[in-house]
Amino acid sequence: MTNVFRVNKRDVLKFTAAGALLPLAGMFPRLANAAGPIKTAAIYTVPVEQQWVSRIHKAATIAKDRGDIEYVFSEKVSNTDYERVMREYCEAGNQLIVGEAFAVEDAARAVAKDYPDRAFLIGSSFKPDAAAAPNFAVFDNYIQDASYLSGIVAGAMTKTGKIGMVGGYPIPEVNRLMNAFMAGVRETRADATFLVAFIGSWFDPPKAKETALAQIDAGADLLYAERFGVSDAAKEKGILAVGNVIDTQTDYPDTVVASALWHFEPTLDAAIAALKAGAFKADDYGQYSFMKAGGSSLAPYGTFESKIPDDVKAKVAAKEADIKSGAFSVAIDDNEPKSS
After folding, report:
1. What is the rounded average pLDDT for all residues in the chain?
2. Domains and CATH numbers, the chain
């Protein structure tokens, strides 16, 4: 994966040019009701332990264990090999294909068109196109709600008000979480400033750590760990970190003060239910990542339960209740965050 390719993914997907023939949804065979465990295959471009992918893998494993799906997967699949692997899984009779198509949008959607009797649940920044591929549904990690709450905690725990933030790429899926975190920080530390950096990789812990150490040297006393490796720098220097997507406090009990968690189970369960009912279609499953749908949460405070001020915990609880009830909405800001 290259930085340029990822950053410009919004320019990658080019739907059929004007004047070209687009197949109508009615021309595709209707997906049949899935009887028994649904044969499911997942394709990942990174190791399965990477934050984002690990949550999909966890949800799929849970669904397999309860008998809803049969589950196989491939990890560390290169962008150039992605389409081949997708086609092989389709040819092997898998009914549901799960993956992330952020750098291979054209290829992934082309495969879906060629296999209209398969269901595709694919991570994407783009919306579904029912006319071109009525069997291609998309999802995304809209966990800005939990990121905002983690920021409220971070703002209360920083001493200097200078916070370092290390991300993979400045794409919508990352930007919206960073911006929500920054908004949360300002709830409890209005004068906070931020050092923002992107490492140009989804999985390079040494580079993330090196970048975080530079931010600490520049005065940051708390780090936002969007990538693996950042919490290692915080631990080494004796400062706090806030986690993203997964809870790593067990590994960093004196470092990770809060984490915004993504739960893929609601997304996958909705797709399974649709398949079982014979109702799977091109749809946007992003809604299932929202906190009110159970798709995200703030991790338990754990080792920091007694270290976070009571009034801050009360503020977080009140905001969480308002988010779940719909009384308060966290802004979805996909713009690239900047140092300030």
Report:
1. 89
2. 3-10+21-139+264-293 (3.40.50.2300), 144-262+309-325 (3.40.50.2300)
